[in-house]
Specification:
223 residues; alpha/beta; Rossmann fold; seven-stranded mixed beta sheet; 7 strands; globular
């Protein structure tokens, strides 16, 4: 089965190109369900066209999104209605994130572009006491269980594509995102490094080739 999976995944890529849907946006509501009832400040790292940042604005008094791609940041600003408490900036997530502190930091499909331990340390230092970090990330499949989860995701992926594009002559457009590259770190290595930086972090492999990380800052001053 594992020997055939790369061929199946290539066929799935072709199917997804013809019937696209946003795998990252699928987890946006999941993120909201893990947030405190109300926050003062939230930060979305790798904010893309701003969909998650605008959702966070329903739960935070002020939201800032940062992305390295100027064109996407321009698009995010265009799509944000006046009066919505969201700002966006162009910058490097490890060098130009405003210092905070933030009650919530989110990072979706971005962490694999950054040095893992350095990025998590950077986010930890910008969390307010009691603040929450939520990551939806990508990992490189390596183990049998990885490939099994990949295989299990194929059916739901096809079903979601049909549902989201049902009745449309043209496929539903996928939210504009920055150019991406494949993940290079296996899930066990991500777990090991993440828990070294964030003791007690909860990590779990998910459908649609993603994993999640949730961590709450201790009630002592951030480093």
């Amino acid at each position: 089965m594992t020997a055939q999976l790369p061929r199946v995944l290539r066929a799935l890529d072709r199917f997804h190109a013809a019937h696209p849907w946003d795998h990252n946006a699928h987890y946006h509501r999941w993120i909201l369900r893990r947030l405190p009832g109300r926050s003062a400040r939230a930060l979305d790292v790798g904010s893309g066209s701003g969909d998650l940042a605008r959702l966070l604005a329903s739960r935070a008094d002020a939201v800032h999104g940062i992305d390295a791609d100027p064109a996407i940041v321009d698009r995010a600003r265009e799509r944000t209605a006046p009066g919505v408490p969201v700002t966006f900036s162009v910058g490097d997530a490890l060098e130009e994130v405003p210092s905070g502190p933030y009650d919530v930091i989110t990072c979706v499909a971005t962490l694999h572009h950054l040095p893992l331990s350095e990025a998590l340390t950077h986010f930890r230092r910008r969390l307010a006491p009691g603040g929450t970090l939520i990551v939806v990330g990508l990992y490189r499949p390596r183990s049998r269980s990885d490939y099994l989860i990949d295989a299990v995701a194929i059916g739901p992926n096809i079903a979601m594509a049909w549902i989201k594009n049902k009745g449309r002559r043209a496929p539903r457009p996928v939210a504009m995102t920055a150019p991406t590259r494949p993940a290079t770190t296996a899930f066990p290595d991500i777990v090991r490094d993440a828990r070294r930086v964030l003791p007690g972090a909860r990590l779990r492999r998910r459908l649609f080739w993603r994993y999640t990380l949730v961590w709450k800052q201790g009630l002592s001053p951030a480093e």
